[in-house]
Each structure stands twice: as C-alpha cells, then as structure tokens.
Binding oxidoreductase (Anaeramoeba flamelloides), 360 residues
Amino acid sequence: MTFQAFEPIQLGKNLKLKNRIVMPAMARWKCKSDCVPHEGYLKYYKRRAKHNVGLIISEGTHVDNTHSYAIHTGYEGRLTNEKQKKAFEGIVKAVHKYGGKFIPQLWHCGENATNPISVVSSSQRIKQMDRNDMDQVRDAFVNSAVLAKEAGCDGVEIHGANGYLLSNFMSKRNVRNDEYGGTIVNRMRFPLEVVRAVRQAVGEQFPILYRTSQWSVSNYNEIKWDNVEELKIWCDGLKEAGVDIIDVSTHKCYKLEFVGQGKQEESHTLAGWIKKLSGLPVIAVGGVSYTQTVAYNWGSSGKTSIENPERCLKLIEKGECDLLAVGRALIANYDWVDKVQRGDWEKLKPYSRKTLDELF
Ligand SMILES: Cc1cc2nc3c(=O)[nH]c(=O)nc-3n(C[C@H](O)[C@H](O)[C@H](O)COP(=O)(O)O)c2cc1C
C-alpha cells in the first residue's frame, strides 16, 4: 500500500523519522520492584524498531521517587535514578540501530495513583494538591526529562491526557478557587508551568511532545473544550510554552469533533483541529486497524476484529495529522508496518487482554 504514512518526515527542530507510524505509550506493567525497564522491554522495543516503526513512545514512565503519588501499579518503568537511566540508554541504542527513534512518556498518575493526590479533593482520603506538591511534581517532570536527555532519548512526551494528573487540571471538574482552577486559562496554568520548566531544563533543541485528550479513564465522554475557541486558547498555550508536537489521544482517530455547532465551515477530527489551531505537527491515534476501541478491551476479555486501516492512513494525506499512532495492533503485531505496507492487513492478529500476558 502506498501512503505518505510510510515516507520519512522531519519534525520540529530535531526529529527525523523514517516513516510516520508511531507506537504510542502503552503501560505493560512488567517491571520488578526496582522499576527498571529490563532486557525483556529492550527486546520488545527493538523488535518493533527492526520491523520499521518510525517512532516508539515508551510505556507510561513514572517521574517521581520522592513520594508515591505518581505511581500507577508499581510495575511500570520509572526514570528517576541512574540505574533506570542506564536501562533507557540501552533501549535507545537498540532502537537507533534499526533507524527508529525512542521517546519516553513521562507520567504522573494523580488521583489514579496507588497513593492518590488530587487536583480537587472529592474525599477526606485524598489530599488536594497545594503549592508545595505542585513544585515537587513540576521538579519531578524536569528531573526525568533531564535524565531522558542524558540517556540519549530523542525527546520526551509529557503525559497530559486520559485523566491522569495534568489532564485533571484541564478538566471542568477542576473547580479549585485559586489561580489553578475554574476558567480555561486557570486550568491550563499548571500543565503549562510544567512544560515551561521542562523546556528550560532541556534547552531549545530537544523535542517535547505533549499528549492531550478530551476523555479520561473515569469518563470516556468527558469534554474539556466545548468549542474551537476554547481549544485555540489551549493550543496557543502549548505552543508558547515550548511544545514541539502535540499527541492527540482519541478512541477513534477519524471521528469528527465539534460537529453540529453551526459556526464551523470546516470539519476536522480533534487532531485536525489541533493541527490547524496550533500550527504544530500532531499525532492522531485511536482504532487503527481494529473495529472496537480501546474502551472495549478495558471492559471485556473479548478479541477485536480487524479492519482495513486505509481510512486512518489517509488522514495524513488529508492534512488531519502528521503522524499516526497504532496502539493495540502494534502490541499484537510487532510487524504491523511490514504487513500493512505489503497490503497484507487481513493477516493482522486481533488483540485481547490476553495479548498483554507476554512482553513479546
Ligand atoms: C494496555 C494499554 C496500556 C496503555 N497505557 C497507556 C499509557 O501508559 N499512556 C498513555 O498515554 N496511553 C496509554 N494507553 C492508550 C494508548 O496509547 C492508545 O492511545 C489507545 O490504545 C488507542 O489506540 P489503539 O486504538 O490503536 O489501541 C494504553 C492502551 C493500552 C491498550
């Protein structure tokens, strides 16, 4: 199949990819208590680089070892000390050997952590973040980003999506009555402080990706931006703070956003709107080559059914995105790029929760 998706691209200041297919962040929960992404992870990422994935984003990787607020299950990788940095160094080298690029996703779980902390506390059990907590979180992101740069990674992705800490600042549920809650400008203030601090620490040339979404794990239908005008304020903020590429997390990458609002003459996907409003390169994700969304696999042990990825691949030609991320289908098919490029998409394997048992 001939698509721009399989052609090289130069992105941002310093990122040249051999094609536009991305493996998005997917937690695999296979680390031991030292939270070091071990040899099994190295082989897993290397296999995908060897089989022509242009950009690999690591599983959600924790930024904090000063307290446990960041941690999801404790079995994800972390990037907080020299031993973990060495492991990332090895992975980057292995991926580079095959012409791939590797970027860790930096993750703080917030209210979804084992020991939760919240933007706005809804119960006695969960502490509401104060300024001191915010400083710690910001510094933790900076610390991990610097370690990623020292490890030779090709950039960092800040996880600001899907209902974890930074995305919860963006939520309309964030009714804090200080300058970090309420209006859209207030809600985006802390995530942008994190981006600016990371940018200052890693310098102008090091690519920063930012993952953003409407939805969250606690509410798949959550809306953070009601309209294009609000989204524009967020896009301007990300750009001004120093983000190079925006990774737009949706369940179906081809679904149109802000439909039926009457004012828009154009129709776009969420990634398409963000690309247009920010002027930055964007990654689209969600439902490539599978009929069911990721929500189906979280709620069921059933298998996905395969579908032709053509309409998703064409989003690049249509100018809706620059890169296309393939999630579950790349866990189930390390050779996704090779199969699809040859026109053999019907030979793709389905995905089910069982696929996660092995790190292959
Ligand atoms: C097992 C699993 C783990 C995931 N972990 C993360 C994560 O750590 N960080 C993140 O931003 N998204 C995570 N996601 C979401 C994916 O990055 C992706 O956006 C989603 O699966 C939709 O793409 P798909 O339909 O191609 O699977 C995860 C998804 C799966 C299936």
Summary: The radius of gyration is 19 Å. The first helix runs from residue 39 to 50. The chain has one domain: 4-357. Residues 24-27, 59-60, 105, 159, 161-162, 211, 249, 285-288, 293-294, 326-329, 356 surround flavin mononucleotide (CB under 6 Å).
